[in-house]
């Protein structure tokens, strides 16, 4: 619908507000996007639509505002530095190797797998192990992973919120036990327990729980959706698959760890595949802001309290900035000057509220694609493209069925 409206009304228009006086703007002019998200970000807060998220994440960094948000971001950010995240690489590689075993078995008996479901489990375990480290087994405790409701339940309704809050209590019990033993371990929780603000104080128990829950939700579904879409596109574009496999085949096994945790020339095509996937299917497909002060965007007067909607999905498919915008063509990202407008491509948003987990997400996606493309060729087993399900994330609504063909070279 937003794409149709964009064609009819152009890059800036207003939509009727359901209630109250606040006006609702839809903005897809890259220059204005830059102004709202970066240059004058201080005049904007997170907008409507976040209320449902707030229900789940309390005062976590995704939804908090002002000085409180700035403090929490300062406390969390150091844990996301590439040098610190490198400690997770071996764990991410091991989780992918386990999944490759399952896919090898599926390939052997020629059974299709729903990669969306499998990858959702994979990214959930990765985010939980990044947060809880050695405490992860306590979470699972021999039984089913209590957090698997996040990958199994698609609906984010009140019933889900109640179950999600019960998970908060599980998290709280782990925090309590950790506080009594040694908080100083290298995982996100260890970092959060020891991080101190300028005034020397750390996070309260409530804040810790909200931030942990935020990282689980923000770090799990987004990466999972992106990878599921990537497999659909790779499977239906054999020439892309062949080129990506040639690139990963050129790496020796022992070189993989050195190239997956940064944008390397040796993986430039895989990098382009990831960017092209995030362009066509940005998991955070709709961002919202509320003006907290008046602002002027070109000829448009924004009043305090006006609501603003920016859709990366619409920007990423705008023919003004992308040639053949609906086609999956990773090579576009190998050309100089693409995107032609920096703010026409914002899968991780931009400015002070940009995604804190971008580096981790990119590492996870590279590691996953490299591991699997070395071993398998995907064949799409569906009889129609996956349905675009645009809830909080843009995910493949009815899964992504893939048959894996084991590559002889690696088995
Ligand atoms: C492909 C994967 C991912 C995508 C596309 C993505 C996208 C985004 C976007 C668009 C935002 C900004 C939302 C807004 O402005 O309203 C955001 C924020 C955020 N993301 Fe990600 N994300 C991904 C993975 C991750 C991971 C792996 C983590 C952490 C484990 C993470 C943690 C966060 C957090 C905490 C925020 C809030 C930052 C703040 O407001 O200060 N994300 N992400």
TrEMBL record:
EC number: 1.14.14.1
Pfam families: p450 (PF00067)
Alphabetized Gene3D superfamilies for the sequence: Cytochrome P450
Cofactor annotation: heme
Gene Ontology molecular function: heme binding; iron ion binding; oxidoreductase activity, acting on paired donors, with incorporation or reduction of molecular oxygen, reduced flavin or flavoprotein as one donor, and incorporation of one atom of oxygen
Residues engaged in binding heme: 355
Keywords recorded for this protein, A-Z: Heme, Iron, Metal-binding, Monooxygenase, Oxidoreductase
Top-level taxonomic group: Bacteria
Enzyme category, top tier: oxidoreductase
InterPro entries: Cyt_P450, Cyt_P450_E_grp-I, Cyt_P450_sf, Cytochrome_P450_monoxygenase
Family of this protein: Belongs to the cytochrome P450 family.
Name used for this protein in its record: Unspecific monooxygenase protein
